[in-house]
Amino acid sequence: LQLKYSVNSELHIVESNHPLWLNRWIDGNDWRKSNNKKLYLELAHLVASGKTGDKGVLNYLIDTWFDGEIKTYTEDDSLKIKGYEMLIHGHRGTASSKGSIQQYKALSTKGISCHTHVARRVAGWLTAGTLTTLKPDYVRGLSSWIHSNVVIAPNGKPTHIHIINGEYSTL
Q1: Alpha-carbon dihedral of residues 154, 13, 20, 68, nearest 10 degrees?
Q2: What angle do CA 131, 137, 143 make, to 5 degrees?
């Protein structure tokens, strides 16, 4: 992989349910029954040897492969940009409950999360949409998913940037 980005930019990986799935796969499976025995054993060895620490398997691999060019975090870390907390993905709420924008708006900080795949703004909290397919096989019924990001301007004001039919919009 070759990284291409602006000289003045930084890449951050927010801990979320996505990379945590890999840790759960290692913890919850028997290598003898896995279709991916070799990969399982290689990753399990990293965990057993203590190399992954609190960051987990995927973050350890990213740290190793990219030699710090990409910053990775645990769920307990904090990173604020222009006063907005950036490291709450949204899969966890208070006291390990399921996260929601209703919980986050009550925090003593503003922030941006992404887990819901729905663009929302409530009080000082924003949720971004997704850049994946809007109707994956596991989504049934109606969906409010949208292709959307949140950008924080140099003046500290966040805005949603929606991508609708290939066109950018702030509505």
Answers
A1: -150
A2: 60
Residue 85 pLDDT > 80: yes
Q: Which residues of 44-55 are buried (b: 16+ CB within 10 A; e: fewer)?
A: bebbeeeebeeb
Query: Span 133-159, mean pLDDT?
Result: 93
- Assessment of whether the complete model's pTM goes beyond 0.70: yes
- Are 44 and 31 in contact, with CB atoms under 8 Å apart? yes
* Residue of 132, 131, 135, 105 whose CA lies nearest to 120: 105
The token pair at 106 is 């009550």
Q: How many CB atoms lie within 10 A of CB 86?
A: 19
**Cα–Cα distance between 54 and 74 in angstroms, integer?**
7
Sign of torsion over alpha carbons 124, 86, 102, 117: positive
Neighbour count for residue 155 (Cβ, 10 Å)? 6
CA dist 104 to 82, 94, 116, Å? Answer: 17, 9, 13
Length of the chain (residues): 171
Cα 65 off chain centre by: 19
| Cβ–Cβ under 8 Å, residues 44 and 102 | no
